[in-house]
TrEMBL record:
SUPFAM superfamilies per UniProt: Heme-dependent peroxidases
Gene Ontology molecular functions: heme binding; lactoperoxidase activity; metal ion binding
EC id: 1.11.1.7
Gene: LOC123072695
Record carries keyword Transmembrane: no
Species name: Triticum aestivum (Wheat)
Root EC class: oxidoreductase
Name of the molecule in the record: Peroxidase
UniProt record, GO biological process: hydrogen peroxide catabolic process; response to oxidative stress
Plant heme peroxidase family profile domain residues: 46-343
Residue pairs linked by disulfide bridges in the UniProt entry: 56-137, 89-94, 144-339, 224-251
Species lineage: Eukaryota, Viridiplantae, Streptophyta, Embryophyta, Tracheophyta
Length: 369
């Protein structure tokens, strides 16, 4: 048996080696994450930070320049692009399926209720960026799902938010999701924290991700109909009376067709004021304010309200996680030439199995089964 001091030295050496290894790996991740510390999430298999180095080396700067210029003319576009990426990733993964227009086979993902308030200007911007990239890189090289991920990040940066690096190499789906998939993937604004966490858990996200990603509500607008059940028939007691008065001026009756800012303090700046609002009971949706009411998420809200740096670091980490949900890579899916339509010649929105079921069901029905 090795003498005790020798054994202890060996243990210390192994522990030290282990931590050097972890540190080195974290160091690389840190560089990749642009200033985030050890918590940079792993990069999904098939994605990389330099995916377009050979095929379209200027891809990132083309997206960045476009978004910066477009957001300087229409500040709301930043919110539109950020939300579009979120709605893509939470439903069927980040595969640009939300961009597919409906088809003869039925209404598309876009026609599902939560997607009706996505901004047309954001869809147009993605197509315009796609055209620019196709000209620059001689063909459809950069996927629509990568364009979405980059445009969301650049919208955050253009609004004053954190820089983070986006792993690239996603492929696009030829198939959009059903309305039912959209409804189960995107929780309604009336959701409380436990039900939000149920949805997020299924796609590999946790309570810290929920609080950080909800910070996307530091920019943009919401319709009265998304929160007026907090005003009528009785005011939600978790809402500050001043804020209630303000919202009632914008939405004097249930069902008013008007919009208001999500972040009452700094509506167009990407900062941590969203959390300051929550602490002051000025969150717009139940899904926002409950982050402060709930005992699990409240300390995270308080931390982000105190420290914008903490929020920015975590937002970058959580966006990279969100941006890698169920990605298609390698020879899966396709790189769409037109982000609004699957490439000509690829199988249509219905999968064979469901097509066969539909035909069999119809036949059974006509035979009176
Ligand atoms: C956690 C669950 C979430 C719920 C329940 C939710 C709900 C909503 C609702 C209801 C609206 C307003 C729609 C309208 O009335 O027009 C909205 C807007 C918005 N959401 Fe979320 N959201 C969630 C998470 C996120 C995430 C993760 C992000 C991005 C990281 C995000 C970014 C945005 C942005 C930027 C807007 C403003 C869009 C615009 O002005 O066009 N949301 N959200």
């Amino acid at each position: 048996m090795a003498p005790l001091p020798l054994l202890a030295a060996a243990v210390i050496a192994v522990v030290a080696l282990g931590s050097v290894g972890a540190y080195a790996a974290a160091g690389q991740e840190q560089e990749a994450g642009g200033g985030n510390d050890l918590r940079q999430p792993p990069v999904a298999r098939g994605l990389s930070f330099d995916f377009y180095r050979q095929s379209c080396p200027r891809a990132e700067s083309i997206v960045r320049d476009f978004v910066r210029d477009a957001v300087s003319k229409d500040v709301g576009l930043a919110a539109g692009l950020l939300r579009l990426h979120f709605h893509d990733c939470f439903v069927q993964g980040c595969d640009a399926s939300v961009l597919l227009d409906g088809s003869a086979t039925g209404p598309g993902e876009q026609q599902a209720k939560p997607n009706l308030t996505l901004r047309p200007s954001a869809f147009k911007a993605i197509n315009d960026i796609g055209d620019r990239l196709e000209r620059e890189c001689r063909g459809a090289v950069v996927s629509c799902s990568d364009i979405l991920a980059l445009a969301a990040r650049d919208s955050v940066v253009a609004s004053g938010g954190p820089e983070y690096r986006v792993p690239l190499g996603r492929r696009d789906s030829p198939r959009f999701a059903t309305a039912q998939d959209v409804l189960s993937g995107l929780p309604p604004p009336s959701s409380n924290v436990p039900s939000l966490l149920d949805v997020l858990r299924k796609i590999g996200l946790d309570a810290t991700d929920l609080v950080a990603l909800s910070g996307g509500h530091t920019v943009g607008l919401g319709h009265c109909t998304s929160f007026d059940d907090r005003l009528f028939p009785r005011p939600d007691p978790t809402m500050s009376p001043d804020f209630l008065g303000r919202l009632k001026r914008t939405c004097p009756a249930k069902g008013t067709d008007a919009r208001t800012v999500l972040d009452v303090r700094t509506p167009n700046v990407f900062d941590n004021k969203y959390y300051v609002n929550l602490v002051n009971r000025e969150g717009l949706f139940v899904s926002d304010q409950d982050l402060f009411t709930n005992a699990t998420t409240r300390p995270i809200v308080e931390r982000f309200a105190r420290s914008q740096n903490d929020f920015f670091d975590q937002f970058g980490v959580s966006m990279v996680k969100m941006g890698q949900i169920k990605v298609l890579t390698g020879d899966q899916g396709q790189v769409r030439r037109n982000c609004s339509a699957r490439n000509p010649g690829t199988a249509d929105g219905l999968q064979w199995s469901s097509l066969v079921h539909t035909v069999v069901d119809a036949a059974a029905e006509s035979l009176g089964f």
